[in-house]
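Subject: Sanity check before I submit

Could someone independently write out the structure tokens for this chain? I want to compare against mine line by line before I put it in a report. The sequence has 175 residues.
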Amino acid sequence: EFNPYYHSPQDIIANMDVDYSTRVTKLEIATLGTIAEAQVSNNPPSTPNLDGPTTGTEYEEITFTTSSTDPDEDQIFYEFDWDDGTFGWFGPYTSGETIEVMHTWDTPDTYEIKLRAVDIRNKKSDWSIPFNIEIRPNQAPNAPTITGPNSGTIKKLIAFKVTALDPEGHDVFYS
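---
Independent answer below. Compare away.
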């Protein structure tokens, strides 16, 4: 009994239930959209895996590699959740191409990185298995050692050798 005037001489716009007709129209459009999509085949890319170091230092740019294949050979984007409140999008890349991505963390902690592949038609893979990385505090280099002569001559250059080691192997600068 949605409309007592349905298919009668009083079945005019003034007697129409607009809310009901709007809901029916939306349902019909959604049904047609579903039917149309069902005829277009699009499979999701494979779930990517992440490879890279499991430890790093704060403020250090760390490189990771990943790849995914798309059964329909569509180009692929990668969505990264770096577990530090940031997300990153990379791509597009060719299906099966191994890529390198870099990220830097500002705070020492253990982070659980995950990513997924998304094809150009927005079909998404599952999220990857979480990849854990421990970001450690940056350690200061050891105190420098200076070797060279104890005396010299005015207006003659004197050569000294200065050496310091950084625990993480970073470049060391002297002042």
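---
OP: Matches mine. For the report I'm noting this point. The mean pLDDT is 91.
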